[in-house]
């Protein structure tokens, strides 16, 4: 269940009125399930009054923020997946990230969340068109929750009208064609949902958790590793730690010439080690260095799960 709630538990503290309004909007979608919702959210609603863009965050605001997050990831609101009930997947994208969540109805036909997910966009993904971004968000949602969605019909909600017709493109771009291929094994209908009603996925996409992409030769493959975990393992790995030390201390005489020579092909971005892949004419693409202890976890996530490996 940690995987399904990480997008909420790591939801960062709002720093502006707009961010507070977005968080309250997300929580208010499930206010009927939260006793004394207005009372709990009152300290936060006070922050969005007036025209001050910046907010003065106090203890009472932090307590309200934490309580509401806890309600979102706890029973009776959050439910375990029921294999006998229909699944609804809602997605959204922003200029910074992707957000998605799945819901199922209870016995009274009231929707309850089963899981939430989000991830930040890569630098190159921020240049995608709106339709391509929405399709990327759909791929992210379906692959993230694939163990629940495989082999069943589901309903997808999104706030991009054109996404309903992505299958009908006569000459799709190479990028859209690749994303479309990832969806062929899933059975779903896409229904348009107005942006002002898509508050939960919108808030998740604007406050996405720090996910990474591992780039293979010809495709992007999303995995559930965060950069903090990568950074921690890099410091434990001897090769990575030697390279990092050499980058930080280039004049250290105790470092071997062999390591210094290899260091030329690496760089540090936000204190995380990347390999510099040179592409013509003078471009450099940073490739994340995955420490050995994590390699097996990555392979198992795609070949050891019931829905992993090759599909045909």
UniProtKB/TrEMBL annotation:
Keywords: Multifunctional enzyme. Residues 57-156 form the Reverse transcriptase/retrotransposon-derived protein RNase H-like domain. Its EC number is 2.7.7.49. The keyword Magnesium does not apply. The keyword Transferase does not apply. It holds the Pfam family RT_RNaseH_2. One of its GO terms (molecular function) is RNA-directed DNA polymerase activity. It comes from the Eukaryota. CDD domains: RNase_HI_RT_Ty3. This is RNA-directed DNA polymerase. It comes from Aphis gossypii (Cotton aphid).
